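User: Sequence in, structure out. Go.
Assistant: Echoing your sequence, followed by the structure tokens.
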Amino acid sequence: MVDFSNQPTMKGFFAPTRFEADVYDCEVIGKIPSELNGAFVRLGGDWFYPPTSQEDSPFNMDGYLGMFRFKHGIVNYKGRWVKTPRFNADRKAHKQLFGVYRNPFTDDPSVHGLDRSVQNTTPLAFAGKLFTLKEDSLPYEIDCNTLKTIGPWDFHGKYKSLTFTAHPKVDPVTGEMICYGYEATGLESNDVFLYTINKEGVVTRELRFKVPYVSMVHDIGLTQKHVIIPVFGFVTSMERLKEGKVHWGWDSTKPAYVGVVPREGEAKDIRWFKGPERATVHTLNARTEGEKVILEAPIFDSNPFPFFPPIDGSPWDPQKARAYIRRNTFNLNSKDDGFTEEKLFQMNVSDLGRVDDRYLSLPYRYAFTAYSDPKRPFNQARAGNLQGRVSNCYGRFDLATGEVSSYFVGDTHSLQEVCFIPRGKNAPEGDGFIMGVASNYAEMRSELIIADTQHLEDGDVARVILPFRATSQVHGRWMAEDQLPFA
């Protein structure tokens, strides 16, 4: 018998769902825009069996893939577990065999040496294949029609890192994917392998280098000339792991480093810039302007995650766990290792932001992300005492004028990560639709929101209704009809 009763945070809307699903001809409120043919694919986690410790990270949940398939105004939904060796081993044993996040020393001896990745972070369509990504392992290939798990993919044996980022960047000019693995040669190693993979899925370049200290390197920035590598205060050690702790703890004494890597350069050409305590978990976009490299990102002042606690034993500070859209400028002609930082908007936002991917690595104007507007109503009587966990708006942030256009989801809902879809291949930047899943706390169900970026204040143009709570999402991506061999 599976028992979650000793997991107090897994109640109500956040209780594990533990089922796979097919929903045909989903209920739609409004009308699906005719431009939308493809799939919105979302990846996240759910506990099939309870974690072995209440101190574990939610990043350790089993991977679950959900797909809303759009075709001629009809939407079907399919949800499947990512059936990794870890998931299959647990199912065979009928219990959780794996310990805390990215710490094999806490596993049951029966699974020693088994691939312990849960594949729960980012879906990716590239070179005609659908992948799930988790930064502690290789990508997993998935059948895009059935969502059947095929298995790990190493790009024809040419990808040598043991790990693969959850945030590769696809250059819209060349179609190349820039990707990397950190802790590339094993647990607690200080190695990063940076790759260029052409649009056919063939590795064309590998660069190996070390970061200033072993740390989470979750996302990068890409320009037409450079790759930007943020390194920040999450640290680990073999001693920490052997003590049975989760992989990361926060060290407030560690400065933030940002590496600027020439895309055609060597390890000796990397320039490391140094700044104050910060956390750049996700990026928006970047560009090279002459001898300046510019990165925009939702950046935290300090530790964003309470489940990776400070290593000095101090309490986690939620006031410093707020992300603001900031611009970092790195002058390659400077004599020192400093850089400038500018806060572009005074409101704190979700760090799960997106841009129009056609402008990735290029000059751009608009960013999209969720945020919480305290001036909007929240119906606690119907939704429960959850207001502090609510993102009730999607915003289009104009980096040129400072204007914010807002979509409000409703007084019993909370929004997950936003996705932007252009109205057409030749539409102006930022002209199209935003899409994302909303948690309807009052009705205990999930709803896929679609809104027109030109009329966000008017509300959504369509909502796709699921008759249940979908599993939690980390990241979601729109995959157009021509990106994958959809049936």
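User: And one key feature?
Assistant: The first strand starts at residue 21 and ends at 23.
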